[in-house]
Amino acid sequence: MTSISIHGGQIPIQPSRFVQQLKLNGAPVLRISCCLPRLVSDSRGARRINRYYRQLSDAWRSRWTGVLYTRACAAQKAALAEGASFSPWEATLDYTLTLQTPEVLSLTWQVEEKRSGVQLAQQHGDTWSLLDGSPLPLRGFLPGGRRWKHRLLEEISNQMAARTASGEPFRPDSAAMLRRYFQPEQFFLTPEGVTVWFAPDTLAAPSAGAPRFSFSAAVTKK
């Protein structure tokens, strides 16, 4: 977990975590770890945000101790039957705080599952109003009115063209696929502005990770 500095007037944040090792017949088969933020405040907004992250933690813990544990046990049994070695599977969730002000909280959280040499990863972003604990949409931080999406995708296309010219391995049809793969919830805020990302294996090969596009505070809606 990483975070930026907290300034005066901001709500303190403490990581809330659990770590567990699940076994079968005394042998480890699955290690799980979850770390999510907890706001140290009794305000309405903090209570709603904390409730969301408690439910999120419970949901992933239920998945990992249920279906994923069952699959890990089956994989261990299959490996033993074949006389092969078995490395315990791993599942983790961690977060990165990208912006905190007295009014807004923005962060990303990442889930990784490592299963017998296969690694699956997901990234999610949350941006909150600390006043009432409501999620804030991307369009609220960008200019353009009803055409905000068109302007945003146009700017991303321009950035992508410049980065392609510099050698970044975007796919030849990536500009034409922007609208198809754009997900407005895939964003976070930083002190410099807005960052939007696309899932791996969309605009570029999986080895390139999740492409990110940043927009300075100068183009961020005030």
Outline the fold blueprint:
Elements: E1 13-24, E2 27-39, H1 44-81, E3 89-100, E4 104-115, E5 118-129, H2 148-165, H3 178-181, E6 187-190, E7 193-197, E8 212-216
Parallel strand pairs: 2-3
Antiparallel strand pairs: 1-2, 3-4, 4-5, 6-7, 7-8
Describe the structure.
It is built from three helices and eight strands. It is of the alpha+beta class and 222 residues long. The strands form two sheets. It has a five-stranded mixed sheet with strand order 1-2-3-4-5, with helices on one face. Strands 6-7-8 form a three-stranded antiparallel sheet. β3 (89-100) and β4 form a beta hairpin. The longest helix has 38 residues, at 44-81. The model is unreliable at 1-8 and 218-222 (pLDDT under 50).
Question: Keywords for this structure?
Answer:
222 residues; alpha+beta; 5-stranded mixed β-sheet; 3-stranded antiparallel β-sheet; 27% helix; 34% strand; disordered N terminus; disordered C terminus
